[in-house]
Amino acid sequence: MARVVLVVPCYNEASRLPADEFVRFRLAQDELRVLFVDDGSTDATREVLAELCARDPARLELLALDRNGGKGEAVRRGVLHALDTGAEWVGYWDADLATPLDELERFCAVLREEPAKDVVFGARVRLLGRRIERKLYRHLYGRAFVTAVSTMLALPIYDTQCGAKLFRGGAELGPVFAEPFLSRWIFDVEILARLAGRYEARGVELADRLVEVPLRRWTDVAGSKITSFDAARAAAELLRIGRVYRGVLAPRRRRRHS
């Protein structure tokens, strides 16, 4: 496995962080480093993470942010920190391990075996033989949301919001995370819009560089930070993203419908 840094954003996770899972997985991976980003937690998360990282300081690292900026900002700061350390591949993963860590090797296999691919997204696809345990209302909302995103981006993507993603590092990735995101929660959509813009400038289609990997297992872990209010606000934020990135997105939609 190439040198991978996995960014794990954390906010008030002291009571549900599966610390032993991270340690066990890290021990099985020679070139993996886990970067926990404490997003200004108000509970004991920072202390829990500091204790966890002390168990393997060479491979477990804590980046502590002074104030809460939202998941998007925690991921952004973590990715930039990882790139500064020379990471070849950089990913981010939800702290509750709704996506099991062993899925990461499948993501790495894509980048290792397909040099033309730069981005791997986990996709929560309900298929026979898969264990995707997701509440019905979340599944239905998610399908409606991603349909709107797919239309806006002119990209036939299945799942933008799964918290398991991996990127090929290097000079191309840094500018995507250079500026703060408009949204605290649906920043994944902005990542796609920014990637699309950079690829468009080179005459490359985003769909040719991105792969969605259907997860074998995903669990809707209790204690999610997403509320019904956040879900409603996401629609307004999506419209805002569409306006701000319209210079990139409008030509894509025109080509798709021409």
Describe this structure in words.
By secondary structure, this protein is an alpha/beta fold. It has a single domain (4-257), classed as Spore Coat Polysaccharide Biosynthesis Protein SpsA, Chain A (Alpha-Beta Complex). Helices cover 40% and strands 18% of the residues. The protein is built from eight helices and nine strands. The chain has helices at 19-27, 45-53, 71-84, 104-113, 136-153, 187-201, 228-244, 246-257; strands at residues 4-10, 32-39, 60-65, 89-93, 119-123, 131-133, 164-168, 210-214, 217-219. The longest helix has 18 residues, at 136-153.
Brief summary of the model shown:
The protein is an alpha/beta fold and 258 residues long.
Return the structural class. Answer: alpha/beta
Radius of gyration: 18 Å
> Helices and strands, in N-to-C order?
EHEHEHEHEEHEHEEHH
The helix tally amounts to 8
Secondary-structure blueprint of this entry?
Layout: E1 4-10, H1 19-27, E2 32-39, H2 45-53, E3 60-65, H3 71-84, E4 89-93, H4 104-113, E5 119-123, E6 131-133, H5 136-153, E7 164-168, H6 187-201, E8 210-214, E9 217-219, H7 228-244, H8 246-257
Parallel strand pairs: 1-2, 1-4, 2-3, 5-8, 6-9
Antiparallel strand pairs: 4-7, 5-7
Helix pairs in contact: 5-7
What are the main properties of this structure?
258 residues, two-stranded parallel ribbon, alpha/beta, Spore Coat Polysaccharide Biosynthesis Protein SpsA, Chain A
